[in-house]
């Protein structure tokens, strides 16, 4: 159910002006004596047909869950977590916390003109800093307090790569692929962990760098698949891989000469 407010514009035609509200019936399984009427879930604010703000509300408490401002069809102004300017994120953003098990992870990100810029910080229980990164106009320049190039070199030296791969993985490339490898696990019970593995290929050539992730359910019907979404031809390879992980609240951890994709959390980062 929708309710809207209109007024006539300069041409005499009705225009949305004010609040348009979206209502829904409560979940039948959760209906109580106090929850039999439609509940407000979304509000959209208009000025002469121009959308200025969208607000999503909690169906139980009525409190704002997420809000985003708009101007001329683009995100603009204060929104939940931060601010936009002409459709681009700007300044400090405090992302909606995510949960790793029972631990709440808070994430602070920073932008300039839509580009990743400034310091990103992940914190766990008790405010403990788990991971940091620093960007300069979209380029990852520091990881956990070290210049990115130095941090990646230290990581790769522990992977027992030959000189050719060690050098190749720190140079720019035209094409980078993660090729899925057969699982080494024999898990057959639901709920038992499984390891997905990939071999890194650079410009059509196989390297000896193995990447992996642990997943809980071996009956996951989706084949293991990962893309290096931040990679552009000419970018340093592992830097692009790391930046892709950080954007998804993941990081790279070395275990038994293999780089693992892990969610940033206290449990995953304990040596």
Account of the 3D structure:
The chain is mainly β and about 270 residues long. The protein folds into 2 domains: about 1-75; about 150-270, no CATH class. The chain is built from 4 helices and 23 strands. It has helices spanning about 150-155, 165-170, 235-245, 265-270, and strands at about 1-5, 5-10, 15, 20-25, 40-45, 50-55, 65-70, 75, 75-80, 80-85, 90-95, 100, 105-110, 115, 120-125, 130-135, 140-145, 145, 175-180, 195-200, 205-215, 250-255, 260-265. The strands form 4 sheets. Strands 9, 10, 11, 12, 13, 14, 15, 16, 17 and 18 form a 10-stranded antiparallel beta sheet that branches. A 6-stranded antiparallel beta sheet has the order 1-4-5-6-7-8, with no helix packed on it. β15 (about 120-125) and β16 (about 130-135) form a beta hairpin. The longest helix is centred in the C-terminal third of the chain and has 11 residues, at about 235-245. It is elongated, with a radius of gyration of 24 Å.
Please compute the radius of gyration using only Cα atoms.
24 Å
Mean pLDDT comes to: 84
Broad shape: elongated
| Intertermini distance | 53 Å
Briefly note the structural class of the backbone. mainly beta
- Percent strand equals over 45%
State the share of residues found in helices, binned by percent: 10-25%
């Amino acid at each position: 159910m929708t309710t809207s407010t209109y007024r006539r514009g300069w041409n005499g035609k009705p225009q949305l002006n004010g609040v348009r509200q979206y209502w829904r019936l409560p979940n039948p399984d959760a209906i109580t004596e106090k929850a039999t009427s439609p509940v407000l879930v979304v509000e959209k604010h208009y000025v002469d047909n121009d959308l200025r703000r969208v607000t999503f509300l909690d169906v139980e408490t009525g409190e704002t869950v997420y809000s985003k401002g708009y101007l001329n069809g683009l995100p603009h102004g204060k929104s939940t977590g931060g601010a936009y300017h002409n459709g681009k994120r700007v300044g400090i953003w405090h992302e909606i916390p995510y949960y790793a098990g029972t631990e709440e992870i808070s994430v602070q990100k920073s932008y300039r003109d839509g580009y990743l810029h400034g310091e990103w910080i992940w914190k766990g229980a008790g405010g403990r800093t788990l991971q940091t990164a620093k960007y300069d106009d979209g380029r990852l320049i520091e990881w956990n307090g070290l210049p990115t190039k130095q941090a990646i070199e230290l990581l790769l030296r522990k992977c027992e790569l030959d000189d050719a791969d060690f050098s190749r993985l720190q140079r720019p490339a035209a094409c980078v692929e993660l090729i899925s490898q057969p699982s080494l696990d024999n898990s057959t019970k639901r709920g038992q962990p499984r390891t997905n593995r990939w071999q890194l290929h650079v410009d059509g050539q196989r390297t000896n760098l193995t990447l992996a992730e642990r997943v809980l359910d071996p009956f996951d019907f989706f084949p293991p698949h990962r893309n290096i979404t931040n990679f552009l031809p000419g970018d340093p390879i592992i830097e692009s891989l790391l930046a892709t992980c950080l954007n998804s609240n993941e990081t790279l951890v070395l275990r038994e000469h293999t780089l693992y994709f892990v969610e940033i959390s206290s449990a995953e980062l304990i040596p």
